[in-house]
Write a structure and sequence with these properties.
The complex is a heterodimer.
Chain A: E1 2-3, E2 8-9, H1 17-22, H2 27-53, H3 57-73, H4 79-91, H5 96-121
Antiparallel strand pairs in A: 1-2
Chain B: E1 7-12, H1 16-29, E2 35-40, H2 43-53, E3 57-61, H3 74-84, E4 89-94, H4 99-107, E5 112-115, H5 120-155
Parallel strand pairs in B: 1-2, 1-3, 3-4, 4-5
Chain lengths: ~120, ~160
């Protein structure tokens, strides 16, 4: 999709085709899973941010690991390598500064994904 | 339908999005079968309902204590399930493609092990298909054995 005013490409970060496939397009299921995702991802971002503030590598690792499953359902594939790296750094209890950088990317992509998915959800009422 | 004929399946997974998606996929994959799927976010809640619902199948996350380190992990829950009913078919799920985790799961009695990946739901479906095949064969063998015993009683000295 091209934004004609600014001549920029707007690239979607999420892709619900996998979700639609596994739910066979059933609207009530899609809405239920979208709602669960929107709630869960907001909480997980807060937990990770909190853990970064406290340099709590264990919590960073655990939530990065957990988020991989949910972002894959919502087709946010560009988050997978970011979360994998956060999980690895969390496991080695190393390089909090790098984790902070990764978190900035994670947060930015999640913000866009949330906007997209909230718009998309309107198609499933 | 009589609840006694239903196949109870437990999904024990602390990631609600993943659990709901898996439930949706399995209900579609096995829509002609009398399955009833129950979701649990912790091993503890699963164990509380286990003897009441008697699941034939449990799909169990290895890192159940991922969010709460004090919660029971997948192996502990697996051990408990096997103690309660050794016949329960347990599929261990994990995002870690680690052969040591796979070996440990099988050593503790898991019937199958699936790595969370792009093809995770297909792998779980195939695992359950294998289980249903086993049940069908066991049931057929039991029927043959019964007929054999009847024959022996009626015709053999």
């Amino acid at each position: 999709m091209i934004n004609r005013e600014s001549e920029e490409y707007i690239v979607n970060v999420s892709n619900l085709s996998y979700l639609i496939e596994i739910t066979r397009g059933k609207k009530h299921l899609i809405r239920e899973i979208i709602d669960a995702f929107l709630k869960q991802v907001s909480e997980e971002l807060v937990y990770i941010n909190d853990a970064i503030t406290k340099t709590d590598y264990g919590t960073i690792k655990r939530y990065a690991h957990s988020m991989k499953s949910s972002v894959s359902i919502m087709g946010i594939s560009m988050l997978t390598p970011i979360l994998q790296e956060m999980e690895t750094l969390g496991a080695t209890a190393d390089n909090i500064e790098k984790i902070k950088e990764l978190y900035q990317k994670l947060n930015l992509i999640c913000e866009q994904a949330i906007e997209e998915i909230e718009r998309e959800k309107l198609n499933y009422f | 339908m009589n609840d006694k004929n239903k196949i109870n399946i437990f999904i024990v997974e602390d990631n609600k999005v993943f659990a709901l998606a898996l439930k949706a996929d399995l209900e579609n994959a096995f829509e002609n079968m009398p399955i009833q799927i129950h979701l649990f976010e912790t091993g503890e809640t699963c164990m509380q309902k286990f003897n009441e619902e008697n699941p034939q199948i449990v799909i169990l996350d290895y890192h159940l204590n991922g969010k709460n380190p004090d919660a029971a992990d997948g192996i502990k829950v697996l051990d408990w399930i096997k103690e309660e009913n050794n016949e329960t078919f347990v599929v261990m799920l994990t995002a870690d493609d680690d052969v040591d985790i796979a070996i440990k799961s099988f050593q503790h009695g898991a019937s199958d092990y699936v790595v969370k990946s792009d093809t995770q739901f297909k792998k779980i479906t195939f695992s359950l298909l294998n289980f249903f095949e086993i049940i069908k064969e066991k049931s057929y063998s039991a029927k043959l054995l019964l007929e054999l015993n009847k024959y022996k009683e009626n015709y053999l000295p």
